[in-house]
Amino acid sequence: MDKQAETKACAERAEAQFPLLNGFNGQAMRLAVWPIELWLQWQADILKAAAPAAADWMTRRREGAAAALHTLERLSACHDAKDASRIQSEWIEDETKRLETDMRALGGLSRLWSQESVKIMPAGAKGGRETH
Predict the structure, then answer these.
(1) Which domain holds residue 48?
(2) 128 in a domain, yes or no?
(3) I need a surface site. Which of 47, 98, 117, 127 has the fewest CB within 10 A?
(4) Considering the domain boundaries, does residue 43 fall inside one?
């Protein structure tokens, strides 16, 4: 089947499956679906850009869980309140550092979200002033 016949057959199948689309030509269909295509591309861009931050976050969560387990093991073997206090303080300090890193990463993701959102906004909605 040649390309033209294949396109016509595809259009006929679409008309049969979606009667509301009868009469839509290629240009009309593009106008109807471009917002969806734009939104999906934006989603893909956001997820692609966020992937390294998500992987880093998972690494910190794994490290945090391992540190908590190690701390519990040390505390269960500890027989001195002074040592127990030191062990707990070390764990809190390490966990606080991981939390600070998480907050910085979240700030970066927030900036990324804003930057990607601006890319899809119409020119007039970006807050810029037009000069005449």
Answers:
(1) 3-121
(2) no
(3) 127
(4) yes
